């Protein structure tokens, strides 16, 4: 059974505490809704992935790239730099955050299916080590930008291995009919390899694959690795040399519900090692340097969102049963995943003990939208009431990073807690922030 709370969350007399600070104290000081981040847990998870890659692959260990898209801000980028792992960015904005934090570009990679000329130029100018190329157009853009700066740019080709990963369609990224990468099966991947050979400014070092997100089984990762290694062997046979790198992406699932079993680094890396070793031995290849890209697996479990209940309402359903609608002071503007993916979460009353019977409940937000649902179905105590605090765990990934200003609602802050102290690392937006864009 998975643990949905971070390591420094505890419950005392029914009240949630983070790093020893009570939910009521947190709400009083920082307001709601707020994302609360367990700094100790975050640092430990980042270190665990880095150490597991090194321990498992040894001299063949590449880089653990934290996927910034899950959640990034300047302070988190600083923690990542201190941890020694790398950083994967996919837009100019994410790159700007990394550079503002002083993150070393030599440990960064730039992703994205439509990198602008400006984004590519900025990455090359700042010494970003790896650009993951996603189209023939980008090969030309990277070559031109590198030539103009007298540099030779290290690149990987993002490949589509043709795998239907067991996850939601919107976050499955390795089957054929997607916007990402070069298909191995159609021959597009080989065409891209040949295209890189026409530019002395491009140093092709290997291949990249990312099969999807929130995947809870290792089988698909092994299949993807085998197909990429098959192309490494073809490259060796054609050009008489072996490409030295393979980036197998991320997408390792976490526990959103107590019954979910997360993919942990001590499971993921040995499974990848077995698959890579077997595939390389079959083709008489040296094991390449292996890199991975956990994002959700690091930050997802380290945060929870704290809401205040505003209203409750009993609704009679068609079968004459009752559902309690619990409205909180956030919603789809701070967590779009339920509406977008049908994502499931759990929640607890965070400020007190309740001995009331549990009833069928739907947790909804304050937005003018029927689909504004935080948790579609959950059993919560019948006595939940306005003013209660509701905590939703595992909201670190794609909560604040996908937040919007729908209905002109300001985005919540992110507050980090460690050693019994809490501080704002990303402040709450204000109405003045919203109005500042009007001309």
Descriptive account of the structure:
With 439 residues, the chain is of the alpha/beta class. It has two domains: 9-38 and 301-435, Beta Barrel (Lyase, Ornithine Decarboxylase, Chain A, domain 1); 111-294, TIM Barrel, CATH 3.20.20. It is 30% helix and 26% strand. Strands 4, 14, 15, 16, 17, 18, 19, 20 and 21 form a nine-stranded mixed β-sheet that branches. It has an eight-stranded parallel beta barrel with strand order 5-6-7-8-9-11-12-13, surrounded by seven helices. Helix 8 links the parallel strand 11 (202-208) and strand 12 (245-247). The longest helix is centred in the middle third of the chain and has 21 residues, at 219-239. The termini are far apart. Residues 167-174 have low confidence and may be disordered.
Average the pLDDT over all residues and give the rounded result: 95
Number of separate helices: 12
Report the CATH superfamily of the largest domain: Alanine racemase
Largest sheet: 9 strands, mixed
- Residue share in β-strands: 25-35%
Q: What key attributes describe this structure?
A:
TIM Barrel; 439 residues; 21 strands; Lyase, Ornithine Decarboxylase, Chain A, domain 1; eight-stranded parallel β-barrel; elongated
